[in-house]
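pls ignore typos typing on phone
phosphoenolpyruvate + seq
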Amino acid sequence: MRREIVAGNWKMNTTPAQGVELLKSVAAVKGEAKSSVELIVCPPFTHLCSVIDAAKGTGIAVGAQNCADEAKGAYTGEVSAEMLASMGVEYVILGHSERREYYGETSEKLVKKMKLVYDNGMVPIYCIGEKLEEREAGKEEAICRAQIEEVVFSLSESQFEKLVIAYEPVWAIGTGKTATAEQAQDIQHFIRKVLAEKFGTLAEKTPILYGGSCKPSNAGEIFGKKDVDGGLIGGAALVAEDFIGIAKAF
Ligand code: PEP
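k done
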C-alpha cells in the first residue's frame, strides 16, 4: 500500500491574503476526502509563512515551488532551502517543466537543489515529463529515463525512500489536454521500473503522482491505475472544491 497524495501547485497566483483564504477553504472541505489522502499545498514564497500558520492543526502540509541551488550568500533574489525549512516548509517542488523551460533548470542544478532540500530535512517533489514533440517522436520513455538517471540516481537509499515523483507530460500542463489513464499508467509503470534498476524493491513504495490538467471529472479514472498514487495539480488547486474534488477521487 503506497501513500496517496494530492499536491497543489499554486504557481504565481494569489496574493498572500487570498492564499490564506484558499488554505482555509481547502481545510473547511478537507473532511470530504478520505483521511488517508495526504494534502499538500505549494504557495508562492511570499505566502509561505502566513499559509503555514493558517495550516497548523489542519493536517495540510505546505511545500515551496522551488529553492536556490546554493546554500547561502551573494545570490540576489534567491531563496535558500535553509530559509524554507526554518519557516516550516516540508516539501519542495523541483524540476517543474516551467522552471526547466523558462529558467534554465538543468539536471546539474537539480542535483544540487535536491541535496540542499534533503540536507535541510525537507522532501523533494521531483517533476519529470516529456514535451509534445518528444511524445510524438516516441521519445517519452527516453526523456523520463534521462531525467531520472541524471538526478534521482544521485540519491542515497535513505534519501530515495522519502522522494515523491510527479510525472507531468508538458503537453498536458495547463492545456486542458489530459493524458489518458492508460498513457499515465504505462509511463508511470516504466518510471517505477527505471527507479527499481537502481533502488530495487524500494521503488515499489515511491509515490508517483500524475500532473497535467487533472480535475475532479478525470481524477478517478487516472488515480484508479496501479502506478498512479495521486496528483500534482495546477489550475484546479486554486479552487478549494475542485482540489478536494480531486482528492475525493481516491
Ligand atoms: C502543474 O503545473 O504542475 C500542473 C499539473 O498544472 P495543470 O493542472 O494546470 O495542468
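The longest helix spans residues 181-199. Strands lie at 4-9, 37-42, 61-64, 91-94, 123-128, 164-167, 208-210, 230-233. more later
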